[in-house]
Inverse folding.
């Protein structure tokens, strides 16, 4: 299936069948990172050749990479005047800094989601909960009450449920992720196993109970199923299908087909989360024989080839992407977007065929993002709620593609300051 159908409003091919009993969800320690964010190691020599940067061993892994030395023509950018070019996760998002940016010092669910996305389980909560990891907010209803002002999760007849977006109680919105099942997806991508304990209402439950509730309430025609799809693809296999509380059976073929019919223009972050969910399903198809039929696998491969083609065609100045990257023919707003570029670069590392993408372009994009992030953080450390998503995904892409794991200082050697 190509992306041509995605220029139309999505249609739902919802199938129904008689009721049946579902087997108990298998509890496995499955790391979503292995198929969602499997960036290969990039050597410093390749980086130097492709990105126009020189690599000098000088800084530790635990902190920001060392100072940037200005080169010929480096006069226009803040980072060109002796400041460090930011390439470490800890440079970009810190919950204590985010707290200072929030009225009343109250963090949002989106803040925690995106910091965990960038830093994983290592992320710590700020004072007064600095002895707790940020991800524990999603696993302990009392901790979520202390951080957000009210619990993020509650018991349901099917297990444990996270508060849905725009859910209201006593005339006020409850804390929630910005998208359906975003918290559950975050746990999956962070590699949290289905056996991990959840404390809710005084009971000791597990992530498996949250998945059971997700499956019971699954609606393939819901407006946003991208995050749900990634969570299910992470925790359910090798089981091939599930039945919701209405008796509707869904399998991975049906889920994949629905995602491929979704309109990217109507998706969040330039439709990149829809593409990410397709990549996740395709990866699981390789890991579990028979999970997805051969015909659907071929459609997924065609979809991804078309997506790579559009990504290559829409790249602006060989280093960035606009939010409308999926349009064909190209048109409209072709302004380089940090939001789109960060998400697309993450996807290219996650499972879009490397041989089909341009490594030089990918590394140039990582460098462009590093410059944009460095300049943004030089202006002010305050981070607005609207900035948390583009900053986190851009920083994640930079950390993956620039070789900070090799303890390197990045020194710009070109006259354009990375712009």
């Amino acid at each position: 299936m190509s992306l041509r159908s995605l220029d139309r409003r999505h249609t739902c091919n919802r199938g129904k069948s008689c009721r049946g009993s579902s087997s108990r969800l298998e509890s496995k320690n499955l790391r979503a990172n292995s198929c969602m964010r499997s960036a290969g190691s990039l050597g410093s020599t390749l980086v130097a050749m492709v990105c126009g940067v020189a690599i000098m061993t000088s800084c530790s892994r635990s902190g920001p990479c060392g100072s940037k030395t200005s080169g010929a023509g480096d006069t226009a950018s803040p980072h060109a005047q002796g400041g460090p070019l930011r390439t470490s996760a800890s440079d970009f998002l810190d919950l204590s800094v985010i707290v200072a940016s929030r009225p009343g010092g109250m963090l949002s669910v989106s803040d925690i989601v995106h910091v965990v996305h960038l830093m994983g389980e290592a992320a710590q909560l700020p004072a007064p909960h600095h002895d707790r990891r940020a991800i524990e907010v999603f696993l302990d209803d009392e901790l979520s009450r202390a951080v957000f002002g009210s619990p993020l999760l509650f018991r349901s007849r099917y297990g444990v449920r996270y508060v849905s977006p725009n859910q209201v109680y006593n005339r006020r919105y409850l804390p929630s992720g910005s998208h359906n099942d975003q918290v559950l997806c975050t746990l999956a991508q962070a590699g949290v196993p289905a056996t991990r304990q959840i404390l809710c209402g005084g009971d000791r439950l597990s992530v498996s109970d949250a998945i059971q509730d997700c499956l019971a309430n699954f609606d393939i025609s819901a407006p946003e199923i991208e995050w749900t799809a990634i969570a299910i693809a992470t925790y359910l296999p090798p089981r091939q299908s599930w039945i919701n509380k209405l008796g509707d059976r869904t399998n991975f073929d049906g889920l994949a087909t629905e995602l491929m019919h979704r309109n990217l223009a109507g998706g969040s972050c330039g439709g990149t989360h829809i593409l990410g969910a397709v990549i996740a399903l395709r990866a699981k198809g390789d890991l579990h024989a028979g999970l997805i039929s051969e015909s659907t696998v071929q459609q997924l491969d065609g979809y991804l080839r078309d997506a790579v083609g559009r990504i290559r065609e829409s790249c602006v100045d060989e280093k960035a992407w606009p939010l409308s990257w999926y349009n064909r023919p190209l048109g409209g707003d072709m302004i380089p977007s940090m939001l789109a570029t960060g998400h697309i670069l993450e996807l290219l590392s996650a499972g879009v065929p490397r041989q089909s993408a341009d490594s030089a372009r990918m590394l140039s994009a990582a460098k462009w993002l590093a410059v944009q992030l460095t300049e943004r953080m030089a202006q002010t450390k305050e981070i607005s709620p609207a900035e948390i998503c583009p900053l986190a995904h851009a920083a994640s892409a930079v950390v993956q593609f620039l070789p900070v794991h090799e303890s390197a200082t990045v020194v710009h050697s070109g006259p354009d300051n990375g712009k």
